[in-house]
Amino acid sequence: MNKAMDAGGARSSAVSVRGLHVRRGTTTVFDGLDVEIPRGQVTGLLGPSGCGKTTLMRSIVGVQKVASGTVTVLGDPAGSPSLRHRVAYDTQDASVYGDLTIEQNLRYFARLIGAPASDVGRVIEQVGLGPQARQTVDSLSGGQEYRVSLGVAMLGTPEVLVLDEPTVGLDPVLRAELWAIFRALAAGGTTMIVSSHVMDEAVRCDRLLLMRAGRIISDTTPEGLLSSTGTDDPDAAFLALVERDEAAHPKLRREGDRS
Ligand SMILES: Nc1ncnc2c1ncn2[C@@H]1O[C@H](COP(=O)(O)OP(=O)(O)O)[C@@H](O)[C@H]1O
Ligand SMILES: [Mg+2]
Hints:
- The protein is of the alpha/beta class and about 260 residues long.
- The chain has a domain at about 40-85 and about 190-250: P-loop containing nucleotide triphosphate hydrolases (Rossmann fold), CATH 3.40.50.
- The chain has 9 helices and 10 strands.
- The strands form 2 sheets. The chain has a 6-stranded mixed β-sheet with strand order 6-7-8-3-9-10, sandwiched between helices. Strands 2-1-4-5 form a 4-stranded antiparallel β-sheet.
- The radius of gyration is 19 Å and the shape is globular.
- The N and C termini lie far apart (about 45 Å).
Protein backbone atom coordinates (compact mmCIF):
# COMPACT_ATOMS: atom_id res chain seq x y z
CA MET A 1 0.00 0.00 0.00
CA ASN A 2 1.49 3.35 -1.00
CA LYS A 3 1.52 6.63 0.91
CA ALA A 4 -1.17 8.26 -1.20
CA MET A 5 -3.57 5.44 -0.35
CA ASP A 6 -2.72 5.70 3.35
CA ALA A 7 -3.43 9.41 3.20
CA GLY A 8 -7.00 8.78 2.07
CA GLY A 9 -8.97 7.79 -0.99
CA ALA A 10 -9.55 11.28 -2.39
CA ARG A 11 -5.85 11.94 -2.81
CA SER A 12 -5.24 8.78 -4.77
CA SER A 13 -8.21 9.42 -7.04
CA ALA A 14 -7.59 10.91 -10.46
CA VAL A 15 -10.82 12.88 -10.17
CA SER A 16 -12.88 13.77 -7.15
CA VAL A 17 -16.20 15.57 -7.60
CA ARG A 18 -18.04 16.90 -4.53
CA GLY A 19 -21.46 18.51 -4.44
CA LEU A 20 -21.30 19.67 -8.04
CA HIS A 21 -24.09 21.94 -9.27
CA VAL A 22 -24.14 22.85 -12.95
CA ARG A 23 -26.78 24.69 -14.88
CA ARG A 24 -26.78 24.93 -18.67
CA GLY A 25 -29.28 27.38 -20.07
CA THR A 26 -32.47 26.80 -18.11
CA THR A 27 -31.62 23.15 -17.38
CA THR A 28 -30.15 22.03 -14.06
CA VAL A 29 -27.75 19.33 -15.23
CA PHE A 30 -26.19 18.45 -11.85
CA ASP A 31 -27.84 19.10 -8.53
CA GLY A 32 -25.15 17.98 -6.09
CA LEU A 33 -23.11 15.32 -7.91
CA ASP A 34 -20.42 13.29 -6.09
CA VAL A 35 -18.01 11.09 -8.07
CA GLU A 36 -14.60 9.49 -7.56
CA ILE A 37 -12.59 8.28 -10.54
CA PRO A 38 -9.59 6.03 -9.82
CA ARG A 39 -6.17 6.53 -11.41
CA GLY A 40 -4.65 4.30 -14.07
CA GLN A 41 -7.86 2.61 -15.10
CA VAL A 42 -10.40 2.92 -17.88
CA THR A 43 -13.54 4.45 -16.41
CA GLY A 44 -16.61 4.38 -18.64
CA LEU A 45 -19.18 7.15 -18.34
CA LEU A 46 -22.27 5.50 -19.70
CA GLY A 47 -25.81 6.67 -20.13
CA PRO A 48 -28.34 7.93 -22.65
CA SER A 49 -27.99 11.17 -24.61
CA GLY A 50 -28.66 14.19 -22.42
CA CYS A 51 -27.81 12.48 -19.11
CA GLY A 52 -24.81 14.75 -18.53
CA LYS A 53 -21.74 12.86 -19.79
CA THR A 54 -20.30 15.78 -21.75
CA THR A 55 -21.09 18.24 -18.96
CA LEU A 56 -19.23 16.04 -16.46
CA MET A 57 -16.24 15.77 -18.81
CA ARG A 58 -16.23 19.53 -19.37
CA SER A 59 -16.27 20.00 -15.59
CA ILE A 60 -13.31 17.62 -15.21
CA VAL A 61 -11.20 19.43 -17.82
CA GLY A 62 -12.20 22.78 -16.33
CA VAL A 63 -14.08 24.37 -19.23
CA GLN A 64 -17.55 24.12 -17.70
CA LYS A 65 -19.03 26.99 -15.71
CA VAL A 66 -19.92 25.54 -12.34
CA ALA A 67 -22.56 26.99 -9.99
CA SER A 68 -21.09 25.35 -6.86
CA GLY A 69 -19.18 22.32 -5.63
CA THR A 70 -15.61 21.20 -6.24
CA VAL A 71 -13.90 19.21 -8.95
CA THR A 72 -10.37 18.07 -8.05
CA VAL A 73 -8.12 16.51 -10.66
CA LEU A 74 -4.78 14.93 -9.67
CA GLY A 75 -5.03 16.87 -6.43
CA ASP A 76 -5.59 20.32 -7.98
CA PRO A 77 -8.79 22.23 -8.82
CA ALA A 78 -10.05 21.36 -12.33
CA GLY A 79 -8.81 23.86 -14.90
CA SER A 80 -5.73 24.90 -12.86
CA PRO A 81 -2.75 26.01 -14.98
CA SER A 82 -0.77 23.19 -13.33
CA LEU A 83 -3.09 20.67 -15.01
CA ARG A 84 -2.79 22.08 -18.52
CA HIS A 85 -0.32 19.45 -19.71
CA ARG A 86 -1.42 16.70 -17.36
CA VAL A 87 -5.02 16.43 -18.58
CA ALA A 88 -6.08 16.14 -22.24
CA TYR A 89 -9.58 16.28 -23.65
CA ASP A 90 -10.84 15.10 -27.01
CA THR A 91 -14.29 16.33 -27.94
CA GLN A 92 -16.26 14.81 -30.77
CA ASP A 93 -15.81 17.78 -33.06
CA ALA A 94 -13.02 17.55 -35.63
CA SER A 95 -10.04 19.36 -34.21
CA VAL A 96 -7.36 18.71 -36.83
CA TYR A 97 -6.54 20.44 -40.11
CA GLY A 98 -7.85 18.61 -43.19
CA ASP A 99 -5.35 20.14 -45.60
CA LEU A 100 -2.30 19.16 -43.52
CA THR A 101 -0.80 15.68 -43.33
CA ILE A 102 -1.04 13.62 -40.15
CA GLU A 103 2.59 14.36 -39.41
CA GLN A 104 2.20 18.11 -40.05
CA ASN A 105 -0.83 18.27 -37.77
CA LEU A 106 0.97 16.50 -34.96
CA ARG A 107 4.12 18.61 -35.37
CA TYR A 108 2.02 21.77 -35.27
CA PHE A 109 0.14 20.75 -32.12
CA ALA A 110 3.31 19.44 -30.45
CA ARG A 111 4.92 22.88 -30.89
CA LEU A 112 1.74 24.57 -29.70
CA ILE A 113 1.64 22.69 -26.38
CA GLY A 114 5.41 22.43 -25.99
CA ALA A 115 5.55 18.64 -26.30
CA PRO A 116 8.88 17.15 -27.39
CA ALA A 117 9.28 16.72 -31.17
CA SER A 118 9.97 13.02 -30.58
CA ASP A 119 6.35 12.64 -29.42
CA VAL A 120 5.16 12.99 -33.03
CA GLY A 121 6.63 9.70 -34.25
CA ARG A 122 5.75 7.88 -31.05
CA VAL A 123 2.12 8.96 -31.13
CA ILE A 124 1.74 8.09 -34.85
CA GLU A 125 2.91 4.55 -34.03
CA GLN A 126 0.65 4.29 -30.94
CA VAL A 127 -2.46 5.16 -32.93
CA GLY A 128 -1.39 2.87 -35.77
CA LEU A 129 -1.14 5.48 -38.53
CA GLY A 130 2.50 4.92 -39.57
CA PRO A 131 1.66 4.06 -43.20
CA GLN A 132 -0.59 7.15 -43.57
CA ALA A 133 1.70 9.65 -41.81
CA ARG A 134 2.28 11.70 -44.98
CA GLN A 135 -1.35 11.68 -46.15
CA THR A 136 -3.54 14.73 -45.67
CA VAL A 137 -6.27 14.32 -43.08
CA ASP A 138 -8.88 15.03 -45.78
CA SER A 139 -7.87 11.79 -47.53
CA LEU A 140 -8.44 9.62 -44.44
CA SER A 141 -11.48 7.61 -43.37
CA GLY A 142 -13.54 8.87 -40.42
CA GLY A 143 -12.01 6.28 -38.11
CA GLN A 144 -8.49 7.27 -39.13
CA GLU A 145 -9.27 10.96 -38.73
CA TYR A 146 -10.45 10.30 -35.19
CA ARG A 147 -7.18 8.53 -34.44
CA VAL A 148 -5.28 11.64 -35.56
CA SER A 149 -7.25 13.73 -33.11
CA LEU A 150 -6.67 11.10 -30.40
CA GLY A 151 -2.97 11.33 -31.26
CA VAL A 152 -3.06 15.09 -30.71
CA ALA A 153 -4.57 14.49 -27.26
CA MET A 154 -1.77 12.00 -26.51
CA LEU A 155 1.03 14.51 -27.24
CA GLY A 156 2.98 15.43 -24.12
CA THR A 157 1.91 12.15 -22.45
CA PRO A 158 -0.99 13.45 -20.34
CA GLU A 159 -1.75 11.54 -17.15
CA VAL A 160 -5.50 11.83 -17.64
CA LEU A 161 -7.14 11.42 -21.03
CA VAL A 162 -10.80 12.42 -21.31
CA LEU A 163 -12.49 11.14 -24.47
CA ASP A 164 -16.06 12.07 -25.31
CA GLU A 165 -17.87 9.30 -27.20
CA PRO A 166 -14.79 8.31 -29.20
CA THR A 167 -16.34 5.26 -30.81
CA VAL A 168 -19.66 6.74 -31.90
CA GLY A 169 -20.54 5.75 -35.46
CA LEU A 170 -17.59 3.39 -35.87
CA ASP A 171 -18.03 -0.16 -37.09
CA PRO A 172 -17.19 -3.01 -34.66
CA VAL A 173 -13.72 -3.62 -36.11
CA LEU A 174 -12.68 0.03 -35.77
CA ARG A 175 -14.18 0.16 -32.28
CA ALA A 176 -12.15 -2.87 -31.27
CA GLU A 177 -9.00 -1.20 -32.65
CA LEU A 178 -9.66 1.94 -30.64
CA TRP A 179 -10.32 -0.04 -27.48
CA ALA A 180 -7.01 -1.83 -27.96
CA ILE A 181 -5.33 1.61 -27.97
CA PHE A 182 -7.25 2.70 -24.83
CA ARG A 183 -6.31 -0.51 -23.01
CA ALA A 184 -2.64 -0.07 -23.98
CA LEU A 185 -2.67 3.52 -22.67
CA ALA A 186 -4.24 2.42 -19.37
CA ALA A 187 -1.70 -0.40 -19.08
CA GLY A 188 0.98 2.30 -19.35
CA GLY A 189 -0.57 4.11 -16.38
CA THR A 190 -2.79 6.69 -18.11
CA THR A 191 -6.14 7.36 -16.46
CA MET A 192 -8.72 6.97 -19.21
CA ILE A 193 -12.19 8.49 -18.92
CA VAL A 194 -14.31 7.42 -21.87
CA SER A 195 -17.97 8.19 -22.45
CA SER A 196 -20.44 6.21 -24.49
CA HIS A 197 -24.17 5.88 -24.92
CA VAL A 198 -23.71 2.31 -26.14
CA MET A 199 -23.89 -0.16 -23.28
CA ASP A 200 -21.89 -2.89 -25.00
CA GLU A 201 -18.78 -0.74 -24.46
CA ALA A 202 -19.29 -1.32 -20.74
CA VAL A 203 -17.52 -4.67 -20.71
CA ARG A 204 -14.31 -3.07 -21.97
CA CYS A 205 -13.97 -0.73 -18.98
CA ASP A 206 -12.42 -1.40 -15.56
CA ARG A 207 -14.88 0.84 -13.77
CA LEU A 208 -18.36 1.97 -14.77
CA LEU A 209 -20.27 5.09 -13.89
CA LEU A 210 -23.83 4.67 -15.11
CA MET A 211 -25.66 7.95 -15.44
CA ARG A 212 -29.27 8.94 -15.77
CA ALA A 213 -30.75 12.44 -15.71
CA GLY A 214 -27.68 14.08 -14.16
CA ARG A 215 -27.10 11.43 -11.48
CA ILE A 216 -24.77 8.48 -11.09
CA ILE A 217 -27.19 5.60 -10.66
CA SER A 218 -24.42 3.02 -10.31
CA ASP A 219 -20.67 3.12 -9.62
CA THR A 220 -19.61 -0.41 -10.42
CA THR A 221 -17.50 -2.77 -12.53
CA PRO A 222 -18.57 -4.79 -15.58
CA GLU A 223 -18.80 -7.91 -13.38
CA GLY A 224 -20.68 -6.01 -10.69
CA LEU A 225 -23.14 -4.60 -13.22
CA LEU A 226 -24.02 -8.04 -14.58
CA SER A 227 -24.08 -9.90 -11.27
CA SER A 228 -26.18 -7.27 -9.46
CA THR A 229 -28.85 -7.54 -12.14
CA GLY A 230 -28.59 -11.27 -12.82
CA THR A 231 -28.13 -10.89 -16.57
CA ASP A 232 -25.30 -11.32 -19.05
CA ASP A 233 -26.46 -8.48 -21.30
CA PRO A 234 -25.19 -4.97 -20.40
CA ASP A 235 -28.20 -3.31 -22.06
CA ALA A 236 -30.65 -5.36 -19.99
CA ALA A 237 -28.56 -4.70 -16.88
CA PHE A 238 -28.67 -0.95 -17.43
CA LEU A 239 -32.42 -1.05 -17.99
CA ALA A 240 -32.86 -3.01 -14.77
CA LEU A 241 -30.85 -0.35 -12.89
CA VAL A 242 -32.87 2.45 -14.51
CA GLU A 243 -36.10 0.76 -13.41
CA ARG A 244 -34.78 0.44 -9.86
CA ASP A 245 -33.75 4.07 -9.91
CA GLU A 246 -37.13 5.16 -11.22
CA ALA A 247 -38.85 3.25 -8.45
CA ALA A 248 -36.58 4.96 -5.91
CA HIS A 249 -36.88 8.45 -7.47
CA PRO A 250 -40.24 8.50 -9.23
CA LYS A 251 -40.36 12.25 -9.79
CA LEU A 252 -37.19 12.45 -11.90
CA ARG A 253 -37.87 12.54 -15.62
CA ARG A 254 -36.07 10.18 -17.99
CA GLU A 255 -34.50 13.07 -19.76
CA GLY A 256 -32.28 11.04 -22.05
CA ASP A 257 -35.12 9.18 -23.66
CA ARG A 258 -36.11 11.99 -25.95
CA SER A 259 -33.09 11.71 -28.27
N1 LIG B 1 -25.27 24.65 -24.35
C1 LIG B 1 -26.31 24.19 -23.66
N2 LIG B 1 -27.33 25.01 -23.28
C2 LIG B 1 -28.36 24.55 -22.58
N3 LIG B 1 -28.51 23.27 -22.20
C3 LIG B 1 -27.55 22.40 -22.55
C4 LIG B 1 -26.40 22.81 -23.30
N4 LIG B 1 -25.62 21.73 -23.48
C5 LIG B 1 -26.24 20.70 -22.88
N5 LIG B 1 -27.38 21.10 -22.33
C6 LIG B 1 -28.32 20.25 -21.57
O1 LIG B 1 -27.59 19.67 -20.50
C7 LIG B 1 -28.00 18.32 -20.29
C8 LIG B 1 -26.79 17.42 -20.31
O2 LIG B 1 -26.21 17.46 -21.59
P1 LIG B 1 -24.88 16.70 -21.95
O3 LIG B 1 -23.91 16.85 -20.85
O4 LIG B 1 -24.46 17.19 -23.29
O5 LIG B 1 -25.36 15.18 -22.02
P2 LIG B 1 -24.73 13.93 -22.78
O6 LIG B 1 -23.31 14.26 -23.11
O7 LIG B 1 -24.88 12.81 -21.83
O8 LIG B 1 -25.55 13.72 -24.01
C9 LIG B 1 -29.05 18.01 -21.35
O9 LIG B 1 -30.31 18.18 -20.77
C10 LIG B 1 -28.80 19.07 -22.39
O10 LIG B 1 -30.00 19.38 -23.06
MG1 LIG C 1 -22.36 14.28 -24.94
